[in-house]
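Complex record, two chains
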Amino acid sequence: MSKPIVEAREIHKHFGHLHVLKGVDLEVAERELVFVIGPSGSGKSTLLRCLNRLEEPSSGSVVVDGIDMLDPRTDINHARQRIGMVFQSFNLYPHMTALGNVTLALRKVAGKSRGEADVLGMAALERVGLADRAGHTPGQLSGGQQQRVAIARAIALEPRVMLFDEPTSALDPELVGSVLEVMRDLRQSGMTMIVVSHEMGFARNAADRVVFMDDGLIVEQGPPAAIFENPTQERTRAFIGQIQRH
Amino acid sequence: MIESFFNPEIIAAIWPIVLAGLLNTVLLSLIVVPLGLLGGLILALLATVHHPLVRWPLMAWVDFFRAFPPLVLLVLLFAGLPFAGLELGGFACVAIAFFLNTGAYYGEILRAGIDSVPAGQVEAGRSTGLSRLQAMTYIVLPQAVRNVLPDLMSNTLEVVKLTSLGSVVAVPELLFQARQAQSLTYNATPIVLAAIIYFLLLWPLVRLLSRLENRALAGRR
């Protein structure tokens, strides 16, 4: 394993009385694709959100690409440019065009001129196959297209790591394929990716590692074949059995 | 009847006085509406700070100025402040009173608009490195304003009507000028004229508001 680009140590997260993360360690190597699975409420989305500090861990440390994310002296807005995030509900800005969505941070955070940002934004839309939709607003796009614009918005900033929080869960089944296609393409370009998702087929043939979480802890992890065919833990077995029945 | 309520000779004579009043009403509106919006924006932005030291004083402030009758506030500033050695003109008093009173109303409207924007919008922006303020400026506020546009319009309508309060502190706006003209002519015509002008000034706004409200209702369906 090459040197880790994401290192999370002993992450705890409390929401009031709820102890959502109970000491999670996660290391992700450069160019690795890690799948995080687990029942709802197991803390997998919270873990993902702790990595770019959308959620403030109660304790522990997070280092991404050499930057200590939890150090108060860290310029978090600068650090976040290196960590792209894709959300379950897309979260596109409805009052802007697709291109406007992709170029906002390029202009306001990366400091590009409108002309430069438009060129980079169009290139990002091209990568997700939606250059011809640049002038459309989110309301005029299908769910699958919206999610691909959201991916373009993240990759336009040339992040070192991409976080996907259930990227296909809100999509109609026939639209899932186009989003997975874009993710596969990203993977082939060598992007480091951490994906919270239950797309088992995709995990099986694209993931380097599958991490199974339950009740705020990592229960078991390993190559997809090992986790899916031969889980060693009873909880993993039960969960895999449940989702495969569907 | 026409003699004392809509006398053409009197209209011709006092027309310049009333016109000056109309111009002042428009001018006053152009000053107090942005002032109120500014005050409202400040209050709405403060409301996004969920710290008890901000929240409680803010709530007290908004409650106080919404409960306090604007006319009383205006008279208090105009007639009360001189006793504190601070003599402001009528115009300045109107500006301050409106900043305080209508600002509180605009603030509540804008706050509702900001609350109507899903949290995921800010998270998406922050995840790309936008600061809190940038996310507010470029992502939240444009959507917030659009979501409460009919309410903002409706409040603006009220604010323009309330500028007639200026007459109480001798600001030469439309109502004040009409009253002056009335006392010069011993005739009700100037007041009738002012009433018609108020209606003609506000009616297009009312129509526009109705259309916005219908569109908002249709959009919700």
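Note: The interface with chain A takes residues 118, 120-121, 123-131, 134, 138-139, 142-143, 146 of chain B (CB under 8 Å).
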